[in-house]
Amino acid sequence: MKTLLSLFLILILASCSSSSKKIVDKLYYRFGEPLVITTNIDFGVQRPTAMGILGNRPMVAQKADGALLQLNHNFWIDSPKILLQNYLIKSFNVSPGAHDNQLKSTLLNFEKKGSTSIVSIVFTLVDKNNNTLFQKTYTQQQELPENTMAAFVKSVSQSLGIIIKILAEDLK
User: Fold this and answer.
1) 70: pLDDT confidence band, cut at 50, 70 and 90?
2) Which residues of 19-37 are buried (b: 16+ CB within 10 A; e: fewer)?
3) Collapsed DSSP state (helix, strand, coil) of residue 102
């Protein structure tokens, strides 16, 4: 009876102990460094807006049925809205202070779909009276060389660089 009771207690203790599953690390990413681009138009950069979950720190993946899914272990180091604002300020070398014109932006797509990255942003340039001077949507899709988060982040940075260069040309 003592042996049976001892085995029973050992089984209970063993079942309550923590499993040997390895805890997955949370990984944080940021955009690459932008190239500095000059334009003839002086403008400030407003904080971008984002559609729903795209403005949150977790990275977003698109499932085969089109549903968006926030990833549990891969995050932006800050909100993509803040990362994009800082990227635009560095890209256009925007000085602090008041500006007659403001560049507004809205993130439409900022996600990984299988082995493809999709970046889509609406840029709107407005004057001090909030009249629209320019508005255009830019979209870049790139196939990832490998289906990893590091490749996705690099692809997003490349897509942003391409979009910003085209935007700068369009603003001239």
Assistant:
1) confident
2) eeeeeeeeeebebeebeeb
3) strand
